[in-house]
Design brief:
27-stranded mixed sheet, single chain, 528 residues, Pectate Lyase C-like
């Protein structure tokens, strides 16, 4: 009986509340909407690549519930923008273009989400970039209010694997490359989505950016030449491969404007919005396979990859990789990863890597001069130091394979970062482990005596000659990849005459004595 009474009481309260509830009486929009911005800039996109999602907030500051009779893109069904209005996709034949009778309660707001995918060829055929605009129209006639939409669209050369139907399954299949990556002839082939570049594609110019989907591969006997000022963009999980017998020539030049970098060749992801400017891991790597040869990179910036450069094998080939006047930033794993390979580097700047900025693993031959090898990774945990060398590899069965570290010479270098120590040497018996640091500044403070192996005998002049430890080089702003040093830095005037280049990475002539690292010292301007 008591339960029945409670049920009747609850039902009565519900009926009473319903009878007293105010009905929403919507009045037509009066042209008094307010907006979070009067123009939405969708930043820069490549032709036919979708943008990020941007938002606009619309406010009804009045005391009335209003009805917006029409909310539409100015170009209607032909617009290359698309909208989502508080979860609604519109009423027209093409979603996201036109909306009717949009309700907005008093003192309330709503979100409009905006995206675009633009085919520049449908806009103009003679331009490599085009400003595409439209407008969101709220209501019409005397009450109409507008919010502008603006996007800069860039044309590009697109390189991507073909997509075809498998005759047996009837499903779409993406073209793949099959490689014996390490060149040992064993049954360890790797399949990668991508294709070999055609002969007509083996010269990247600076006329248009290049956008690569999957891996673009340089075949045996072929050379990919990249002109000064070229821009190469990679989609997610994409990269560049130089196969056995292939070569890569990156022919950058010094830039007159350090902000424009007009002479450099820049490798980065294909998202051009400012949000993605410094996000690591947006694409894979530049991979120099075992057997590739005569690879030469000059005045390049490689940023936001998983591994900036991965060089495999050929440790006795002095032309395997020569890299000069180049910067590698924001690599989610390694800036440069060598595996039993041969690298000559001068005027290198490496920074912000999820693991090591430079790793010479499974032995090899490395000669690095006047380089700044730093790591100011923002993560609270980093497993490896800025510089890592070893002479072995361990397979999945925990079998150890060794290979000679024939030589690893670092001369006039800065090896520093936000962790300690920033140098790790791992030697396995049974293979050579030859290295030497000459006139370097290194962060290594072993206050707990954890590193007692002979490789860390800093008094051994055969291993460490004129090396300073733990003196802060006073970088301008290392977290922002600004690794210039000031006059009076511990690295200032501490170098010996060595190397093949007479200027620093900015083409400033080296002093006498020269400075450690890739940059000659400058006078920092103080902020006013």
């Amino acid at each position: 009986m008591k339960r029945f009474f409670y049920f009747i009481l609850s039902l009565a309260l519900i009926i009473f509340w319903s009878s007293c509830r105010k009905d929403f009486n919507f009045t037509p929009s009066n042209g008094m909407l307010e907006f979070s911005k009067d123009t939405v800039f969708l930043d820069t996109v490549f032709s036919n690549i979708g943008s990020s999602t941007y938002n606009l907030k619309v406010y009804n500051r009045s005391n009335d519930d209003i009805l917006i009779p029409t909310l539409r893109l100015g170009q209607g069904q032909n617009s290359m923008y698309r909208l989502n209005v508080d979860g609604m996709t519109g009423t027209g034949p093409i979603a996201g273009k036109e909306f009717e009778n949009v309700e907005l309660l008093a003192k309330d707001s709503m979100f409009i989400f905006i995206e675009t995918t633009i085919d520049i060829q449908s806009l103009v055929s003679s331009e490599t970039q085009f400003l595409y605009t439209d407008v969101i129209e709220f209501d019409s006639g005397d009450n109409q209010q507008n919010v502008e939409l603006v996007t800069l669209v860039k044309d590009a050369v697109f390189i991507y694997p073909q997509r075809f139907i498998d005759n047996q399954t009837g499903e779409y299949v993406i073209e793949t490359l099959v490689f014996d990556v390490d060149g040992d002839g064993m049954d360890d082939e790797t399949t990668i989505q991508g294709r070999f570049l055609e002969d007509s594609e083996l010269n990247f110019t600076n006329e248009k950016p290049y956008v690569i989907y999957g891996y673009a591969a340089v075949d045996t006997g072929k050379t990919l030449n990249i002109d000064a000022g070229a821009r190469v963009h990679f989609h997610a999980n994409s990269g560049l491969l130089v196969t056995d017998g292939g070569s890569l020539k990156v022919n950058g030049l010094p830039s007159a404007d350090p902000d424009l970098l007009e002479g450099e060749v820049i490798f980065e992801g294909d998202r051009l919005e400012p949000l993605f400017e410094d996000i690591p891991g947006q694409w894979q790597t530049i991979w120099l396979f075992n057997g590739s040869t005569d690879n030469d990179i000059n005045h390049a910036t490689i940023k936001n990859s998983t591994i900036g450069i991965l060089s495999d094998g050929d440790q006795n080939d002095p032309t395997k990789l020569t890299i000069t006047n180049s910067q590698i930033y924001n690599s989610s794993n390694f800036g440069i990863l060598g595996r039993g390979t041969n690298i000559y580097g001068e005027n290198l700047v490496l920074n912000n890597s999820g693991q090591s900025s430079f790793a010479g693993t499974f032995g090899g031959t490395y000669n690095i001069v006047h380089s700044t090898i730093a790591n100011y990774w923002t993560s609270s945990f980093r497993q490896f130091p800025s510089l890592f060398l070893n002479n072995f590899v361990i397979d999945e069965d925990l079998t150890i394979f060794t290979n000679d570290l024939t030589e690893a010479n670092f001369t006039n270098c800065i090896i520093f970062g936000n962790d300690n120590p920033e140098l790790l040497l791992e030697k396995e018996m049974g293979a050579l482990f030859n290295f030497k640091f000459t006139n370097c500044l290194i962060r290594f403070n072993d206050s707990n005596n954890n590193f007692t192996a002979p490789e860390y005998d800093f008094n051994d002049m055969n291993l460490y000659e004129n090396v300073e430890f733990n003196d802060d080089p006073e970088f301008l702003d290392p977290r922002a990849n600004m690794l210039q040093i000031p006059d009076g830095s511990p690295a200032d005037g501490a170098a010996i005459l060595f190397g093949i280049l007479g200027s620093d990475i900015l083409n400033t002539p080296r002093g006498n004595p020269a400075d450690l690292g890739a940059y000659e010292s400058i006078i920092f301007e103080e902020d006013n």
